[in-house]
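The freezer alarm interrupted the setup, so I double-checked each line after restarting. Inputs confirmed:
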Amino acid sequence: MYDVMGIVYTSKDNLNLRELTTNRAVAALPVAGRYRIIDFTLSNLVNSGVRNVGVIAQKNYHSLMDHLGSGKDWDLHTRNNGLFILPPFLTRENGGEYSGLIEALRANFDYLRRSRQPYVIVTNSDYVCNTSFEPMIEAHMKNGADITMMYIKVRPEHLEFSSSVTSNHTYLDVAGDGIVKDIEVNPNAANFRNLSMNVFIIKRTLLMHLVDQAASRGAKDFDSEILRPYIESQALKIMGFEFTGYFRRIETIKGYFKFNLDLLDADVRQELFATRPVYTKTRDDAPALYRTGASVKNSLVADGCVIEGSVENCVLFRGVHVGRGAKIKDCIVMQDSYVEDEVEMENVILDKEVTVRAHGRLIGQRQYPIVIGKNVTL
Amino acid sequence: MTKKRCIAMLLAGGQGSRLGLLTKINAKPAVPFGGKYRIIDFPLSNCTNSHIDTVGVLTQYQPLELNRYIGNGAPWDLDMSNGGVFVLPPYMKAKSGEWYRGTANAIYQNISFIEQYDPEYVLILSGDHIYKMDYNRMLQAHIDKKADVTIAVRPVPMEVAPSFGIMNTDASDRIVEFEEKPKKPKSNLASMGVYIFTWKLLREYLIADEANPKSSNDFGKNIIPNMLGDGKVMMAYRFEDYWKDVGTIASLWEANMDLLKIPPEFDLTDDRWSIYARSPVMPPHFIGANATVEHSMLTEGCEIYGEVNDSVLFAGVTVEEGAIVEDSVIMPNTRIAAGAVVRRAIVAENCVISRDCIVGEAEGDIALIGQDTVLPQGYVVGAGKQIDNSVISGKEAE
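Predicted 3D structure, all chains:
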């Protein structure tokens, strides 16, 4: 599939993710013990044979750049093509933040023009799934579609965890033949059950044409100002492609918490990690060490952890220390955080490099976990 | 080609026959160690941490796994435009072509490789030891003392000295005598198999040694004694930190167990001297609701539902519910099925220990299961036994 390139649009910081995204893009949010959200997006592209990937960065892109580096870990450090980090283009009008996908794409026309692949997959990076885009690419070619959009049928349990968010959701009405008949952008109460995954494939030149036309008329929102008119007029053949696997969009603390704990389910791990490899930046930690007296139940533990206490239903990222007599339950503990002796924690998310001093006690609620920001000592 | 001050040549061609089934289809430097490493990660990481960025790896015996593992050298930052890591198998020349006949002959056959970098010094390493060493400090000592050869040595207990190459030195640490496995050692300074030579001189000796048909073309047997005989300046460089020869099943097992001690006898967590390894690209490991894991080392991709004590588990190992693993080393992607008990054993890569198997015993020698072995249900492997598929099928034929 060397004729398809990828554009990864990293969204702005999401207020619903509170402290977790104050200093990083959502795409750079650590998940699943050793990954960042964008690892799944990039691995999906690479596993689909895409070898030219542009990552459109926004305001807080330092941690994203630090993570992606040359793209080596995703095999995207090739002489031709490879990984291109596209930082915001600062001008008098643009303060380092795009008003939406249209502006972001318009600002990166040079990159699009330079690329050789006739097709582009444009994707957000605020969701987790493990898929190959090849079936969608094939369907797109076979149907002779102009745009093919990936969607999932929203299941009741999915609605439950995203109910607090009404924005950034696009729903599609997809007919039996796959044609998208109607579209709802950010509805309060959706009529359709097909949630757009914000992943679509299109001819590169068509994308540039549509974006240029829209941008020159001051349009900002891709879904409502480009897709909607063409879906209504049916002037372009816009098709839907259903994804039926495990998919979680990370947009609230609750959703973030739930997704991480979902990984304690063997079926979810199987689907997310066993089907195709998920690449990430390697850190060269030593393996995890379990000391005498450690008790770990139903937990995901990354390399570099040292565990002396008791851990239940937790996700521990790389380099986490759990001290003697500490009891942590239903917690997400990010990279290099240190939980000292006799600490008690429940329903807590510790960001990176947090220290919880000995005998500390932090008890959160399942529905509203305590979040401790990066680099804090308690 | 840019000139390099010092390049390293890593001797990785030996079979390592004392490791039995572990090296049946795998070269010794590619044998897994310490949960996520292979033996060769130690010398390669030492090189990169010592700023030695050009490394030739001389391979001969079962090199495929080793070649795949080294790849382009990226995990050790040895994927360079100028320098990097090179796998050097024996090759055909205009008039002849032959296998590496000994350690010195292996370097001799690669004189042209070395000359490309026009080095002042050449560091000779072997792929049999677990240690963290700053070769650059040793090189500095070599330069400061204007030595022709510097040999890293390590004090060993007098009673085991007869099994090493022993250096007898004068007060200034100049080597005055070298004895290979002496019955009555005069000193306890054992050679670590790490040499720095001034290249111009080594080149002369390699050529002279090659011209001698009676020579066995070996560093320990020929080159070192010859240089000593000619009165060259040969210095001992003392190294007192952790160093372990992992050339036998017992010592390999022991070195793995050393990682679990508190404080660790050998610390892998020091990020000033990281040991690099090729990533298996697997998710964090999972510990099930009814599992117990104590005093053990685990890495990515493990799925533990049973009981693990005092053990080192490599990437992708599964321990099913009701299985027990104790005092053991379980190498990548092996599955220990429900009801199986593994004690004091090394189980190599990609094995299946089926239900109710018993491998090893609480006392006695280490049991060994070779690579890719599928142990049939209920199979019993006693202490010190070595089993692989061919042993099993041979038995069944009886």
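Quick read of the result. Chain B has nine helices and 31 strands.
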